[in-house]
Fold:
Amino acid sequence: MTVPLAIRVAFMIALALPLLSIGAGPKKASADPLVVDLSNHLVAITTGFTGTNVLLFGAVEEEGDVVVTVRGPDQDMVVRKKERKVGIWVNSESARYKNVPAYYASASNRPMDIIASPEVLLDYRIGLQNQRFIGESKLSDDDQKVYREALVRNMQGAGLFGERPAKISFLSNQLFRTDIHFPANTPTGTYTINVYLIRDGRVASVKTTPLVVSKTGISAEVYEFAHRYSALYGIIAVIIAVVAGWIASVVFRKR
Amino acid sequence: MQIYLPIAEISVNIFLILGLGGGVGFLSGLFGVGGGFLITPLLIFYGIPPAVSVATAANQIVASSVSGVFAHWKRGNVDLKMGLVLLAGGIVGSTVGVWVFAWLRSLGQIDLVISLCYVIFLGIIGGMMLFEATRAIFRTRRRGGQIRRSKKHQHSFIHGLPLKMRFYRSGLYISALLPLAVGFFVGMLTALMGVGGGFVMVPAMIYLLGMPTGVVIGTSLFQIIFVTANVTFLQSVQTQTVDVALAILLLIGGVIGAQFGAQFGSRLKAEHLRALLGLLVLSVCLKLLFDLVITPSDLYSVMPGDL
Structure:
């Protein structure tokens, strides 16, 4: 009980210093309200690829809602409608859409409609319903709606559009994580991942991070070769087949 | 065990594809058909894009036909001259076919045309073979094992055609235009349907050209090798839809199956073989017809627009 006063004061200051620096953090201009990273910035499609998950994790400085969107490269898509003609189902009318993401998924910690108003979600193009596909067709507005629904439904069926937003889980008030699933048929290209920090229904911060999906290893080389030296590829394909057939007949002749 | 196919861009089960190749290879050796008429629909049912299925099946048929032709060549069952004339027609036909294929694909009608071609050709030929073979089987039985001989010297308009050629091995003296036309037609089917065309070629040789059954299978296999090789090459250049990884898996199964098929086939009577093939062809036809007629689960389909 006879600790000198000077030592006691020094001890208390030492204890308090870290607390002070934490308290001062948010006031600094350079502080980041939202920090995000991925477990992997490259999804490598190898010969054994059957789909994969990428972990997205991050931290928010102050409590808020987090929304994540993952958008694959744009491509043109054609939607065709079947009609019964002479008893057989035949493709008839079609509509072409531009700017259709090859992949789209979203995630949020709470239902989106609670986090922000439809107007805010539309402004930031968050969610499947707010993706704008530019249609090229002579269809009426009603038909456009049906075709668009068919497009989304088919992409969802192929596992390339998320059926509903995935769950983002908060590990504490500040740390969050979510898994982004990429199916076996994931298209290659550069994906854009946007992470939105939403507070009081307004977007407080946005972080964008790219993710590359590409073929690697033998399958990538075969694909590359087939497209760059297609004539040679064709000749090799024929030679492989002829040799395989010949080997088989030689092997079986000796029996 | 899954493997990712580089051109089809999906991952498939290795053993399933090997088994598929093996089963179809067995039938291929048994009946002397390339087996493409089975392999292409099966690949499409499995989820391989139709364009890749058609082009890759052509590649696989090259292998199964090569392995099958040696056995027939050794037994002298290949009419080389007839094969070359058929081939000349086949090369032209398959080249035109690859072009028509690309055109139909741009119209979005390729799947329908593939299915319709299958239903029509498989239906007609399967029905005819089954009918003829059943009749032959019953006739043989009634006459106590006596084999019905085909009449070689029936005269029709076919014998009035110019450019007559002598085919010694087949014992025929007919116009070269006839095998040329057959080759052209079958070559087109190869490109459009991903088939060797044996199921059209074999009956055409028997019933239209009047070739003896013994040389039909060997000669058909001989020309199929070159026509399917041509299609493989052209599809590689024009559409880049030949998947060698898929083809290798199919042909490993296929060439092994074909050997067993050929050995097994030599123990069967020709009309029994034809009856079995007829049944098989008809069942594939009915399955495809069924798929065309029943209401699809989704009336709308989605395809990348650059196709």
Observations:
- The longest strand of chain B covers residues 300-304.
